[in-house]
TrEMBL record:
CDD domains in the cross-refs: POD-like_MBL-fold
Family matches, as Pfam families: Lactamase_B, Rhodanese
Protein name, as recorded: Metallo-beta-lactamase
Top-level lineage group: Bacteria
Length: 373
């Protein structure tokens, strides 16, 4: 048997290669969150049901395809994979388990910028998070960084650029931001919307509409656009007059939820204003780059998550609800479960608590739950 890293699994999912997964976590954990993909087949059998052998599931296992065994951390999958290997199956296990899957970031080049820079998207395929790097003339800005900050630092080193600005579109509630940590390590400026930062315990640069952040000697504006609704401070970025980074306000197949600070009824009007007025005034040719995706169908063939704003106004149900009361009902009465440990995550992102690394991993386990569709 062999160990497979999360990066290899991510590439298989993006390329839509056939993948058979034997997930040996408990049934409730499997139903809540699993490795998805168009060509992924699953079989869920808790490992404790296999302690006496695999005889009862052999008829359901493929004989002509590698079996990937998955568990939460790795240990149980190694045990089951070893049993399968002894019976002659082609088998592998996911190194680091679902925790490693949750943390993997897959970099995808979105495009070249008009004045010579580049734009990259980091797809956290196991969590649905999306973050970005804008580069120009030896400098870089990172938007909505995850806590795995070494990925951005190492990628910047590969490109030969220095991270000079780090920005968060809002105070995140579903994952721990790496923005402040990355900025401190790189000696960069950390930007945060001030309306989301009234309780933070650290210094930051105020991200407001009049701000215009230049990357490198070439002028590549990251023009902030105040767009509340997911949070009171949610801010979008127009990059290079070509891309609209929407944070958690607008996704490809859904829209943002307004309830993660307990103020859904107060913020639903702001959400509608942002989506139905502020964004409507923008060019339909802008390429929308959200901070999350909800389902694998939102990924393009190259693994990126992006679509023209005009296309979203045609196809995204959340942008086509004329009746305000119906819209209000959608975003306040149809909410999915809240993210795991979201209150603790908000406290961490404010700097009020400093959980250790293992605790942070546990806090983030689970799917993306920032959207309403």
């Amino acid at each position: 048997m062999r160990a497979i890293q999360a990066s290899e699994v991510a590439k298989k999912v993006i390329r839509e290669e056939p993948l058979f997964i034997l997930d040996v976590r408990n049934e409730d954990a499997f139903k809540d969150w699993k490795i998805d993909g168009k060509q992924v087949r699953h079989m869920n059998v808790p490992y404790f049901e296999l302690l006496d052998g695999i005889e009862e599931i052999e008829d359901s296992l493929p004989k002509d395809q590698e079996i990937l065994v998955v568990c939460a951390k790795e240990g149980s999958s190694i045990m089951v994979a070893d049993m399968l290997d002894e019976e002659g199956y082609s088998v592998a296990y996911l190194q680091g388990g679902m925790k490693a899957w949750s943390e993997h970031l897959e970099p995808v080049k979105v495009g070249d910028l008009k004045s010579g820079g580049e734009l990259y998207q980091f797809v956290r395929i196991g969590k649905g998070c999306l973050s970005y790097m804008v580069t120009s003339d030896g400098e870089a800005a990172v938007v909505d960084a995850t806590r795995m900050t070494n990925v951005y630092s190492e990628f910047a080193d590969q490109l030969g650029v220095k991270i000079t600005h780090v920005l968060d579109t809002h105070l995140h509630a579903d994952h721990i931001s790496g923005g402040r940590k990355l900025a401190e390590a790189a000696g960069a400026t950390y930007w945060l919307p001030p309306k989301d930062a009234e309780e933070v315990t650290f210094n930051f640069a105020a991200l407001e509409e009049e701000a215009s952040i230049q990357i490198g000697k070439t002028k590549i504006d990251i023009q902030p656009l105040y767009s509340p609704g997911h949070t009171i401070g949610s801010t979008s970025f127009i990059v290079d007059d070509s891309y609209l980074m929407t944070g958690d306000i607008l996704f490809i197949d859904s829209i943002g939820r307004p309830d993660l600070a307990g103020l859904a009824e107060d913020w639903v009007g702001d959400l509608r204003e942002s989506l139905y007025s502020r964004y409507q005034e923008l060019s339909e040719e802008l390429i929308v780059l959200p901070a999350h995706f909800m389902i694998m169908d939102e990924l393009n063939d190259d693994g990126s998550v992006a679509e023209k704003l005009g296309v979203l106004y045609e196809r995204n149900h959340g942008l086509n609800i004329e009746d305000e009361e119906q819209f209000r009902e959608l975003v306040t009465g149809n909410l999915p479960p809240q993210p795991n440990a979201y209150q603790e995550i908000r406290q961490t992102n404010m700097g009020k608590v400093q959980p250790d690394e293992e605790t942070q991993r546990e806090m983030e386990i689970g799917p993306n739950r920032c959207a309403v569709r």
